[in-house]
Amino acid sequence: MPSRVGWRLTWYWSAVSLLFVLGVLSSGCGYALAGRGSFLPDYIETIGVPMFGNQTPYFEVDQVVTEYVRTEFIGRGNYRVVPDENGADAVLEGDIVSMSIAPASFTAEQQASRYIFSMTANIIFRDLQADEVIWQNGSMTFQDEYEVASGGGALDPSTFFGQEANAMERIAEDFAATVVSSILEAF
Questions:
Q1: Torsion of the alpha carbons at 149, 154, 156 and 162, rounded to the nearest 10
Q2: Whose CA is closest to 185, among 125, 143, 142, 128?
Q3: Largest Cα span, the chain
């Protein structure tokens, strides 16, 4: 026959286990897969993304960034993306204001091996049906570190992009994911 202390201990651990299981099962109610939520109104189905403006001296940055933002919206939900606001429920307008590169780490020969890339943009997302701004950031700064192919090392973005052909695509892809996540997840 089990002792009174043993029975209480067994009952206690059973209750704790049950509460733990219930807690785990109920905790899923408030969570969703990161990057897949949307706080946009249900009637927004078509999003206009006109060509971003480019106030920098770097050719085609606006085209690459715009294309990646469009692709990110398409990949993040059931949105139809159009190149302007005609027929759109909402529009995302962007203007690339500045770009810069700074060395982040060096080789033993004191050559830059990693760079911090910074891009600042003015972004505004407007609901055309309600005629209101849903999200905006007048100076959204995107920064990330990128490794550079050996040799060279100038602090000029055009040199940086010349050293590594797909650097702009990686940067544009990361920037687009940041912008679209900020809009859809209401950050």
A1: -30
A2: 125
A3: 86
pLDDT at 62 over 80: yes
Residue 158 pLDDT > 90 = no
**Rounded Cα distance, 119 and 95, in Å:** 11
Distance of CA 30 to the CA centre of its chain: 21
CA dihedral 152, 154, 155, 159 (to 10 degrees): -80
80's tokens: 């139809």
* pLDDT given for residue 28 in this prediction: 46
In this structure, what are the phi and psi dihedrals at residue 2, rounded to the nearest 5 degrees? -65, 150
Kindly tell me the burial class for residue 70, based on how many C-beta atoms sit within 10 Å of its own C-beta (0-12, 13-18, 19 or more).
Answer: buried
Is residue 152 a contact partner of residue 164, using CB atoms and an 8 Å limit?
no
The residue type of 5 is V
